[in-house]
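From the thread on structure requests for the teaching lab: each student submitted one protein with a one-line request. Submission from student K.M.:

"Model Dehydrogenase from Brevibacterium sediminis, tokens only."
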Amino acid sequence: MEIEGRTAVVTGAASGIGAALARALHERGARVLLADLAEAVTDTAAQLGQPHWTGDVSTATGVDDLLAAADRELGDVDLYFANAGIAGAPGIGGEHDWDRILDINLRAHIRAAERLVPRWQTRGEGYFVATASAAGLLTQIGQAGYSVTKHAALAFAEWLSVTYGDEGVGVSVLAPMGVNTKILWGEDPDSLSAEELAAQRAVSEAGNVLEPAEVAEAVMAAVESETFLILPHPEVLDMYRMKGSDYDRWIRGMRRYQAKLRGSGAAD
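Reply posted by the TA:
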């Protein structure tokens, strides 16, 4: 997929990975609609001289409104980056927590694909990029909702590629570990609970914490080469292979790691 001259929508584009994706697309000559619930998306888009949309992609109505805005601003959408996401509640979470994180981290992807894939089938081309996480291949200590929705986002992207790849629909899924964004550090790092701090350390201490721009460069390279799995942290692949080779051993190791992060003194 050549990016120059293409049209793209990026959700969660006010800051972090989304803003970096929008900038990387802009630098490669794409026209980009930046979308976010946060008003800061206005300033981010203005810096790039690109249009923006402010709204909530966690609802079907929001996705409809976003794509209508994209049609007005860009015309046909060539690339869609389903990047908006939240970390969610610590622990198992409650009913409301699950509804919210499923809508943002998963259903927003499904709703966008439901509307875009038929268009792309007709045209014979289009590209869908889902932001998941290394937690989608491994797991997330501390936050069930994040782990489950990132697994599901990756699985949905995989299904899209298998089902529509021969009809010109390209699919990639981004699965990084630590990235220097608010999702990693939290809106207010000083107010994190012990459980939230353990979850944060599980990511930040597992490998290098990358800058969003580094991640965006990996995504651009993957789209241009039409590579499905994007791993800015290559060590994730080794971890995934270890997990698959002996699942029970891997789970025992993760339990020990969790105990260590929580300060129980358990041995490695």
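TA comment: DSSP finds ten helices and seven strands in the chain. The domain at 7-260 is CATH 3.40.50.720 (Rossmann fold).
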